[in-house]
Structures are given as structure tokens and as C-alpha cells.
Amino acid sequence: MFSLEQVKDIVSDIFRAEIVKQRRDTFAFFDRDAHAKLADIPVAVRESATRQVEDFFGYKSTPFTSLEELAQQSLHAYEKNKCVYLSTSGSTGKPKQCLYTEKMMIQEGQVVGAHFSKAKRFITLTPRQHLYGLSFAILFSDVYAIPALPLPPLPLQPWFSLLRGGDVVAGFPLFWEYFLKAGNKFPTGVTAVTSTAPCPKGLFERLKAAGAEQVVELYGATETGGIGVRYSEKDPFQINSYWNVDAKHSAVRIHREGIEGWIPFPDEVEFIAPRAIFPLKRVDAIVQVAGVNVSLKKVENEIGGHPAVKECRVRLMRPEEGQRLKAFLVLHPGYDEQILPEIRSFLARRLSSHEMPRAFTLGVNLPKNSMGKDADW
What we know:
Blueprint: H1 4-23, H2 43-57, H3 67-81, E1 83-87, E2 97-101, H4 102-111, E3 121-124, H5 131-144, E4 148-150, H6 159-162, E5 167-171, H7 173-181, E6 191-194, H8 203-209, E7 214-221, E8 225-230, E9 237-239, E10 243-246, E11 253-256, E12 263-264, E13 267-273, E14 276-282, E15 286-289, E16 292-295, H9 296-304, E17 309-316, E18 325-331, H10 340-348, E19 359-362
Parallel strand pairs: 3-4, 3-5, 5-6, 6-7, 18-19
Antiparallel strand pairs: 1-2, 7-8, 8-9, 9-14, 10-11, 11-12, 13-14, 15-16, 17-18
Helix pairs in contact: 1-2, 1-3, 2-3, 4-5
């Protein structure tokens, strides 16, 4: 399925994304000249990005002198194994690798891509090592022979002149919010697609008011692939044809055709019809803290019960940080870090030692990544 040029694009995206993390500079992703040569890439970036390339294609690389040479090794691994491994974002737990066989990717391209089979061009705004970017830039494009053009998700670009009738623009909620705030309009005949995070209420209509001929929301996860599609926020998602659904149990299960075993639905859902759903909320994440199961949602609810706390997120520390929980708090106006001792005392009466966060970070907004998902801090 993958050509050498497509593999080179994936490898390049992985390296650019790692440069962003190391520099803490989002614009570094689009700075192609700064890392055109392997020698220009810092050693720490090169080592981390190489591991990610190896994880994605499922192999151990041998010494290489250029990114093209690494891409050639990666293509050889893909041709041998006929699969890739996509990494979850870690927004609901520890990041993990998810197997995607060639058959699954073709299936994804045929079924989900069918909703956009009349497009004249795909505009993709997400890196190709992520399922969403991979789908529009490669899977849908290959299956339906539609050209794809990756562009940076910068709202202040001259979008009205960049886009043209027949374009399908694969964006995400955070981008679309800034796209609209910047006053952008769509030329006639453009479809706006949103995914990667829940669509804010009213976004469909605001995109249409800006000239989008059609707005489409894709629902799914890295762990599952595409689950459903809808064309209005008032309508339920229609479940994709390759899924079998077992809703007889309290925990809904789904099974993908051609793949062994059933898996739990990633969200609590309301069934409108046998294959039509409204996602309600994420299934509560359970993590282990020193061998004890802890509900992150419970801890967040307890923290949110303090009158100074407007919003919060809780997650496990990274290995280098420790083995306990950490919390990010957004406080109501009038409160600052001086309230933290009181919050700690408040929680000590409500949480067990395993549930009690060991570190607290304050900010004006909850941390989000470039695609609008919860981010680490």
C-alpha cells in the first residue's frame, strides 16, 4: 500500500513533530529547511524520533546516514510485515501502540473514505503518523485516487484563496474555532471535516454560516479506527459497516470484521437505532497507583468540589516524574497559588493516599495539544 514517497512523508512528519516537542515551538513543524539534513537534527531529537519510526513500522533500524535511508528501511519493514503501529495520544492513560494491518487500512480507506469519494482534493491538517492524518493523506487518497495536499493548520493563512470547490478539508475542533475567530470564509463547494476531539456545540452551523457546503464529523479512536460518521450535530453517528455491535451487556462491545475478539466501546453511548449512537462520555479511566486501582474521574470530581477550582485534569506521572498522580487546576477568578494548601487539606479528607495527587500545576486553561486533545503538562 505505501510507496517510498509516502513512507518518507511519514518519517519526516515524525521527526518534525519531535522537533516541536524539543523546541517547544509549534511553528518548528513547518520549518522544513532547518532540518533538511540529518546532521542538522539534534542528537536527542534524532534518537527519539528514530525510536518512534521504529515503533510505527515495527522493526529495529540499522545505522543510517539520511532520512531517506531510514525511510527505505521502514518501507522494507512494511513490505515484510504488512502492518503499522499507531500510538495513542496518552490523553486517557499511558500511550500504547495499536496494530493496523494492511487489510484494516484498506478497509478504513474504502468504508470511511466512501463518504468523501466525490472529492476533488483532500486538504489534510494533521501529521501522517496519526490515524486521522494517515487516512486523508494516504488511505482515502489511494483508494479513491484523489490527490491529497497536506497544509499547516494555521488559521491566518489566506484560506479563501488556498481552497477551491471540491476540496475536503480534514481539520479538528480547535483549528476550526480559530479559523472562524480569524474571520475566514469558505469558497463555494468546500466540505469541512472535524475529528480527533468532541465537536463543540454550534460548530456545525457556524462552519456552514462561513460558507462550508457540508460539515462532516468523524467519530473514532486510535485504538479502534473510525467508528461512525454524521452530517449534523443534531443527528446520531451512523456506525461504520465493518463493525459488529453487541449492546446486550451493560458495557457495549464492538467487533471489527476480520479481526479476532470483541473490544469495549470507548465511550458510554445512547442507541437511537441498532446502528445509530450518541456518545455520552468517555468510560472512566482506571489507572494503577502503587498496585491499587484508582479512578481518575473520581479524583477529578473531588478536586472540582472545592469552591476555588473551576476545572481540573488528573493523570499518572510520567516515569521520570514519579509513580503517583498529578493534577492541573484552573482556578476561579480571585484565587491564586496561595489556596493550594487549603485544597490539599480539603482533598486529604476525601481521598485515599493512592488517590491524592502528589503534584499540582496551575494555569488559565486546561492543557491541550495542537489537535485540541488533552495534553500532558
